[in-house]
Amino acid sequence: MKIITTIFTILVFSSCVDSRKSIQEKPKIELELVDEIFIKKELYGTDSIRLNKEQIELFAKEWNNTKSLGFYKMRPEFWIFVKLKNDVIRKFRVNGDLIKEQGDWAFSTGDSLLINSFWIPTYSFPKPENYTPLSFIKFVSQSIDNDPSKSCLGMSMTNEFPEGWVKEEHLEDLFELLDSKEECGCFLNPLSSYIPTGKAEIGGYARIFLKSFKDEEKVDLGLYSCPKVAQNINEELKEWLNKRK
Question: Is the pTM for the entire model greater than 0.85?
């Protein structure tokens, strides 16, 4: 009986040691495998800043050189997402010099201002409130590539369109664009890990914007969007617009 108890104790202890060791493991960030890195204030927020080449190199270096601190409870001030070229995303939580990737095992960069320095508003993505529906369409139209074999990203923007973004004053101009099959750039949310292929059509955006006004709903382009002209919906919108005149 004593032998069995001893063996059981050893197994439990070994399990705890292995578990503790696995928590302490810190996979390094290999720069050649990194596709992009961006930082956010809120886990599910859409405001994010993509790090530039120098910042990516600095973050990788600092993470690889962090010191292990042990278990530490903290409230994340920033979230950092490292997207690798194989589409794997590593997620880090940061508060001051403390940083975690898995569980509550914390590491220290030794610099409480490092991550704060990455959160620079001038690097943030455009927001819908900086555009009107018409200036948005103008922008994605100017970004078109004449090579038909290439995809076209017209706008990389957060998807937080405010209520009432499409206004009464925009309806007539959007109506004129409704059937336009002129090609333009696609929309891409910075949070998307998928790059859309092909091109959008001006009438596709006009339809989405008009329908949002008609249905009294916020514009939602999702993670990416390459809208095309949809004649069946266009007919409904035209009938609705004619009744309003």
Answer: no
